[in-house]
């Protein structure tokens, strides 16, 4: 299951929205069919009457993800304000919804389905930004898809929402009951991060790699992709292993990797963070020159707090977020405008919310007089080509994924990520 989020001001961070998904929580699985049964959408209606169009946002606005979500919504609002609140002859209304439940602040399946049904029942709805985390999108996406509403995720990376790479059985088709794709994203998906990780390993002159994942659901999607991408770049993948459950089998795993010829190790997840930390410590003691690589999930799991300084020196973490100076020139205007409007620098992933809103406004604009036609707006989003944006220039492919491929490679200092360089994925 997805790992808890952890944020730090010292480094660009992701959000709890960027999560892997293999099995829905029981409550979420129960809410899905109920939500679908209750959406009550008129399939024949796809055109908004009048000149007011509504874009909804649904994010967890309480709990650990609150700061990130608030800044995502602020960035989305900023994009709309800069457009004058209009696209052509249409006035755009923006409504932000909270998908958390009191008092805990975690996302709530029932609240998520209510938010999606609220958008479906609103005859002025033209698009929906969110949900987060991935499990929430697994609920809202089929509801919105049945109504033909464009849904754009600013920060979700789970590949199974759009492609079979790294997915589980039935994905992504089960999210599209209408048979038509209506979901896209402006952040690179996990399969692209796998290529970025392999590229980072290749760039640090790794020759032979071991790949280790953990047995938790959702932890097994990235490792096979990294192994494939590493092979495509000429690395020998000498071992593909899993963190043992129970962790009492950790010593045999460490022994097998030590006996291999691997000079680099990819670790896919830190669900059992103490076991992973112990594994890295043992491997470093036996092979001090071995380098370690992993995704941002290791940070979100709190693994970095448990690492010794020698292991930190050998670890590299990839993230889809970059520091302000590493984004394109267009992004600098965003950072200045956000700080001027809201009085503080944005959360690291707010820039994806800004572009998600701009991409939707672009699709409405490209639809012209049909900007109030949901199907036409979906079509124009999927037709995005060579779009110059704060994130860089990108296309949207037939699956709804962006062609952006830049990732930050970060070192670790005192339990925090420190930006080192940008690497661009070279997919197999």
Structure overview:
It is a single chain. The strands form three sheets. A seven-stranded mixed sheet has the order 8-7-9-10-11-14-15. A six-stranded mixed sheet has the order 2-3-1-4-5-6, sandwiched between helices. Strands 12-13 form a two-stranded antiparallel sheet. It has two domains: 26-188 and 327-396, Response regulator (Rossmann fold); 191-319 and 407-424, Rossmann fold (3-Layer(aba) Sandwich), CATH 3.40.50.2300. 36% of the residues lie in helices and 19% in strands. It starts with 25 loop residues before the first helix and ends with a strand. Strand 14 (406-413) and strand 15 form a beta hairpin. The protein has 428 residues and is an alpha/beta fold. The chain is elongated and about 70 Å long. Helix 3 (109-121) packs parallel to helix 4, helix 5 (190-203) packs across helix 6 and helix 7 packs parallel to helix 8 (273-286). It has helices at residues 26-37, 66-82, 109-121, 134-146, 190-203, 222-232, 250-259, 273-286, 297-300, 309-314, 329-342, 350-367, 374-382; strands at 52-59, 86-87, 90-98, 125-130, 150-153, 183-185, 208-213, 236-242, 264-267, 291-295, 315-319, 387-389, 392-394, 406-413, 416-424. Mean pLDDT is 88; it is low at 1-43.
